[in-house]
Design a protein that fits this description.
Layout lengths: L1 H33 L3 H9 L84 E7 L5 H17 L8 H4 L9 H15 L3 H16 L7 H17 L3 H14 L12 H16 L3 E8 L4 E4 L2 E5 L2 E6 L2 E8 L6 E7 L4 E7 L4 H13 L2 H5 L5 H10 L3 E9 L5 E9 L4 E8 L10 H12 L21 H23 L15
Parallel strand pairs: 1-9, 2-8
Antiparallel strand pairs: 2-5, 3-4, 3-6, 6-7, 9-10, 10-11
Helix pairs in contact: 3-13, 5-6, 6-7, 7-8, 8-9, 10-12
């Protein structure tokens, strides 16, 4: 019985040891057979298969099944260490599979096509164009406040001399002077009568010519009016009218102080009487002239000489009958004769009506200053039309309105038409209480925008300009990709024995 137990125990031990020994023997045999032979490699090199075409050498790896690998693929045998890769790679006629492919060099960014529109999100505005500024009233009650605000903003922006404004004089040139054909004809007839020693006819013609010239104070030529009065005084002097001659000489000296009688045409009596009249004019106490206009900022000229811009106060002028001309680009000129008395002040109030061209611009600016245009995310058509008509790059629009309590308020926007960048949300306090919201502060913000000191982020027009970061589907795709990637990493790190299937999300195929 003991012998039977011993035999059974021995048989059990043999059955337990022999399978493990056989498995170990098979593994060693498999590794021994898998070891490449240098002679085989050489044989392959010496006797290539001439029937098969030599594959082209490329940088891309080929199928691993076409070449006997120097290192067999071993799955799930962590007990045995993997043999080290030989220092010298085996040379074959086919590309080496184990050689890693270098990543391609970073390609330079594709050059921007000249006609490609740049990104507007971070494009700084550059002060390389002219500026058009308008202040509009959203209600009739704010018309005067809008006009005052436009003047203040323009004055503040022009103060430094670094902001080029649109030249309205070029955009709206003044009308051509009306030919004074009738007056010139009367003057020529008077000269002919005077040369023919007909002082009575000459006096009548020169008087009619002077009246014709004075009917067009905006078109008259001071030197021609001075000559007309000079010949009128000479004709009256020949007729024996000394007082009338003196009055005509005084008018000639006032109309054009540089008027002088030609010694070849006039005798000593005319020259002496004219010099006495000039001396009397010079001895008179001067008067003052006050000129106002609506809108303000118009140029004032007297006798063809510019005196300043409106409102013009206390300008000293010689006493006499003066032609005052008030002009503003885009508006119909104002011209009238004004009598300035010695030691007194004469006042002129000019109402300047806008011309057809400026009227169209003003109408467009009123629409560009509306609430809908201020809330638009793209360049309003009226703003673009203003820039095109005035050849301006920057269009600044201030809109004046009233709140529910009747208090005045204003808002300013500025567009860079070239890049379609916009400055928005500039509030203006018209009460003078908040200095940081004064017209001067608003003008400074507009200056910074025009000069590129600030570059607000704006949305590009069209679907292509909408940022991907603001699209909901973009974040949904990013979230889904992140979830799939996380699952792949988790499975790959947890189960090394079976490959991960990216289609089913599981392992194995």
């Amino acid at each position: 019985m003991n012998t039977f137990r011993r035999l059974a125990l021995l048989l059990t031990l043999l059955l337990a040891v022999l399978p493990a020994h056989a498995q170990t023997t098979r593994k060693k045999a498999a590794r021994k057979k898998a070891t490449p032979s240098s002679k085989v490699v050489k044989a392959k090199k010496k006797k290539p298969n001439t029937k098969s075409q030599k594959p082209p050498v490329t940088d891309e790896p080929t199928d691993v099944q076409d070449v006997e690998s120097a290192q067999p693929l071993v799955f799930g045998d962590p007990e045995q260490p993997q043999p080290a890769t030989p220092d010298k790679p085996v040379t074959t006629d086919k590309p080496t599979v184990a050689t890693p492919v270098k990543p391609p060099a970073t390609q330079p960014s594709e050059p921007v096509h000249p006609n490609t529109r740049p990104s507007l999100a971070n494009t700084p505005a550059v002060a390389s164009g002219t500026v058009a500024l308008f202040s509009v009233a959203r209600t009739p009650a704010t018309t005067e406040a809008a006009a005052r605000l436009e003047g203040e903003l323009t004055r503040h922006l022009q103060r430094g001399g670094d902001i080029p404004f649109v030249d309205l004089g070029t955009a709206f040139p003044p009308p051509e002077p009306t030919p004074l054909t009738q007056a010139d004809g009367l003057y020529d007839e008077g000269r002919s009568a005077y040369d023919n020693l007909d002082p009575e006819a000459a006096e009548a013609k020169f008087r009619a010519a002077a009246e014709a010239y004075e009917k067009s104070p905006g078109d008259f030529r001071p030197e021609r009016l001075g000559e007309t009065y000079l010949f009128l005084g000479a004709a009256r002097l020949l007729n024996g009218d000394t007082a009338g001659a003196k009055a005509a000489f005084v008018r000639a000296a006032v109309a054009e102080p540089s008027t002088r009688p030609d010694k070849a045409l006039f005798g000593q009596d005319v020259q002496k009487a004219f010099e006495d009249a000039r001396a009397e004019v010079s001895a008179r106490p001067a008067g003052t002239l006050v000129v106002e206009s609506k809108p303000a900022g118009a140029r004032v000229s007297v006798r063809g000489q510019e005196l300043g811009v409106t409102p013009l106060r206390g300008v000293t002028v010689p006493a006499g009958h003066h032609a005052v001309v008030v002009t503003l680009p885009g508006h119909t000129p104002y011209a009238a004769y004004t009598e300035v008395k010695s030691g007194a002040s004469a006042q002129v109030k000019a109402e300047l009506a806008p011309g057809p061209g400026l009227t169209a611009i003003r109408d467009a600016s009123a629409r560009a200053g509306g609430q809908a245009a201020f809330e638009s995310e793209t360049l309003p058509p009226d703003t673009a039309a203003i820039a095109d008509r005035l050849d301006a790059r920057y269009v600044v629009v201030a809109a004046v309105s009233q709140d529910k309590k009747g208090r005045l308020k204003a808002e300013l926007q500025a567009w860079d038409v070239r890049t379609q960048a916009r400055l928005r949300g500039v509030d203006i306090d018209l009460s003078g209480r908040e200095r940081d919201k004064s017209p001067e502060a608003a003008a400074q913000q507009a200056r910074d925008f025009i000069q590129g000191a600030i570059s607000p982020r704006v949305a590009e027009g069209g679907a292509s300009g909408q940022s991907l970061l603001k699209r909901p589907w973009f974040w949904a795709v990013v979230g889904g990709a992140a979830a799939v990637t996380a699952g792949a990493v988790f499975v790959a790190t947890q189960d090394k024995g079976r490959p991960f299937n990216p289609i089913t999300g599981g392992t194995g195929f």
